[in-house]
Amino acid sequence: MLFDVFARVRCRLDILNDILLQRYHCKHLPSRAEDVIVDDLRGKTCVVTGPTSGIGVTTARALVKRGARVVLACRTPSKAEALVERWTKEAAAVGTAPPDCAVMALDLDSLASVEAFAKAFQQREKRLDVLINNAGIFDMSGAYVRTSDGREQHLQANFLAPALLTMTLLNALRKTGAETGDARVVFVSSKLHELCTGLNLSDMDFKRSSYSSQAAYASSKLAEVLFVKALDARLRAKAPGTRALVLHPGNIVTGVVRTLPMWLQSLYKILFERILLTADQGARCSLYCATRTEAVASATIGPYFTSECEERTPSKYALVEGEAEKLWRYTLKELGLEDDII
Ligand SMILES: NC(=O)c1ccc[n+]([C@@H]2O[C@H](COP(=O)([O-])OP(=O)(O)OC[C@H]3O[C@@H](n4cnc5c(N)ncnc54)[C@H](OP(=O)(O)O)[C@@H]3O)[C@@H](O)[C@H]2O)c1
């Protein structure tokens, strides 16, 4: 009991330390997101989910600037279209090539929407080099919300739907991996996965256990870390050239606080703007994992990176023997996928 309290206090202090010192720890990194990318990405196709707010915008923008074709997988296409229009004007103003983007609808609250996206993607696009599962929610209002599929919203939007998206696009990624030796799927998790002291696979929906949105968020983010471990192990055995990585982007001023009352959102920005990372800085780790050779060259299975763009050990609950495999089986069952999908 005392040990548990001590472990929880230590975990929170560690998270606080990460928030307060992240700028210092990241000072070796370029401040512009696109400068993390060293290769010319012309000829590559990347999918970025949640590209219409926060670090999704800066991630997609940096990939576009480096010449990649970027599919903006979003739930509000009008927002993504406005971004493409802005980027087109910016490119024209400096005389560079117009952005090579496609806007496609994807609502993670609906598994049917994920399947429709994957089908449309396969019909329209010729290849897939990188999938960045960036979209996510942290409903700070604390309300228990169910998706249209009847699942707790953090579980579905942060974990199950991105897992389905990954599985349905896996063949496209594997094809590129086999041809070029480099295809990647990147999951944007969070250091808050450390607040989850183990997944409750018999109640991932919090139907029977006591609910808080923080607990649901942490559980969904730990699920991402474990899922990547199971997926990457399979990719390394069966799909040479294709890898899965997971990361904590840092603590960033974004729209993630949108569920708080307006006055609290303003207070959050005033209080934290000087401590937290900018959206541009918050995109660096996603871009590092998605594009840099070093990220995969010496990485362990299902590597977990942090805002410093360095591989770190995730929470001890992500390292428990057999947990990743149990989650893998749970996920396939929940999504109605066959064991031999990979
Ligand atoms: N900000 C941080 O400090 C922080 C820290 C650790 C991890 N993260 C993770 O970083 C990722 C990006 O977060 P952010 O901070 O940039 O948040 P954000 O500004 O709120 O952006 C989230 C993006 O996800 C999209 N999205 C949300 N629910 C969706 C759904 N059901 N279907 C499709 N798209 C959906 C949003 O679309 P709309 O624009 O249409 O709303 C938006 O584009 C998340 O996975 C988050 O958990 C953030």
TrEMBL record:
InterPro entries cross-referenced by the UniProt entry: NAD(P)-bd_dom_sf, SDR_fam
Pfam families in UniProt: adh_short
GO MF term set: oxidoreductase activity
Gene3D superfamilies in UniProt: NAD(P)-binding Rossmann-like Domain
Family: Belongs to the short-chain dehydrogenases/reductases (SDR) family.
Entry keywords, A to Z: Oxidoreductase
Official protein name in the record: Uncharacterized protein
This protein's record includes keyword Hydrolase: no
